[in-house]
Amino acid sequence: MITVDMRDRKPIYEQLIDNIRTLAVQGHLKPDEHLPSVRQLAAELAINPNTIQKAYAELERQNVIYALPGRGNFISPDIGAVARQEKERQLRALAAQITLAKNVGAQKDEIRTLLDAAYDDTTR
Amino acid sequence: MITVDMRDRKPIYEQLIDNIRTLAVQGHLKPDEHLPSVRQLAAELAINPNTIQKAYAELERQNVIYALPGRGNFISPDIGAVARQEKERQLRALAAQITLAKNVGAQKDEIRTLLDAAYDDTTR
DNA sequence: TAACTGTACTAACACAAATAGTACAGATAA
DNA sequence: TTATCTGTACTATTTGTGTTAGTACAGTTA
């Protein structure tokens, strides 16, 4: 489900980009699946169509989706490449966050505990 | 050393808050140590005194520093409590980032490798 | 006394995000 | 063909936040 949080400091169009990219990478949106039209999604989320268009344009630039003028926007068939890039991106962000935690006194064991909790409590 | 990055999207006053809080928590700024005056730091960093004042006011609210009108701003003597809060804050952020990485396909082993690298390559 | 200090204002400016509105061409179903 | 979708491209305006500019006042210190 595509959502936005108006209270979030992150701009709406960036929320949409990250949200839809993640849904596509996780497989919740299938390759060639038809996305809501610019006007329809704007109506659903009660935001301006221009904001949706801005997000869709950036998603197309990132090869997450492709547009067929007059027909609509669709999930890219080769979403796999995007998925690999996104994984690397999140791992880099994670490495940075580990450094931040370490710098304020976090012990390796404490982080290992977080890691175990994230991977043991849920599926896989 | 207190610095700011004008290219960073994060507001200057927030950069100052995080920067000084981290320096204090890490012990690079000692309890009761005298901070640069609002006007002096503004001159050094080539930014407006109001921006420094905004950061100092928030740091005082967070008990990172205390102000003596007419004398200056000083690092809080009980910075330990702040350090504990900050550590918890970073661990929560880390847990969230682990979840993000996991959701885009990161394997536990990959994260463990990052963790080892962060703690083995440097001191401690 | 002079020169610092923190603090409290108001006003203006700059920038990005978001909105509002219009327009046009391609696609599609009636 | 017509009506109604679709993406796309504009301009203008509004809004909110961060930042700057300037002034003022009281406390501190050499």
The CATH class of the largest domain in chain A is Mainly Alpha
The ordered string of helix (H) and strand (E) elements of chain A is: HHHEEHH
The count of helical stretches of chain A stands at 5
- Can you tell me the number of structural domains of chain A? 2
Shape of chain A: elongated
Oligomer: homodimer
Give the chain pair forming the largest contact, with residue counts.
Answer: A-B, 30 and 30 residues
Strand order of the largest sheet of chain A: 1-2
CATH superfamily of the largest domain in chain A: Winged helix-like DNA-binding domain superfamily/Winged helix DNA-binding domain
Annotated CATH architecture of the largest domain in chain A = Orthogonal Bundle
How much of the sequence lies in strands of chain A comes to: 5-15%
Summed over residues and divided by their number, the pLDDT of chain A gives a mean of 96
Q: Which regions of chain A have little confidence, pLDDT < 50, spanning 5+ residues?
A: none
CATH topology of the largest domain in chain A: Arc Repressor Mutant, subunit A
What's the gyration radius of chain A in Å?
A: 18 Å
Largest sheet of chain A: 2 strands, antiparallel
Structural class of chain A: mainly alpha
Helix content of chain A: 55-70%
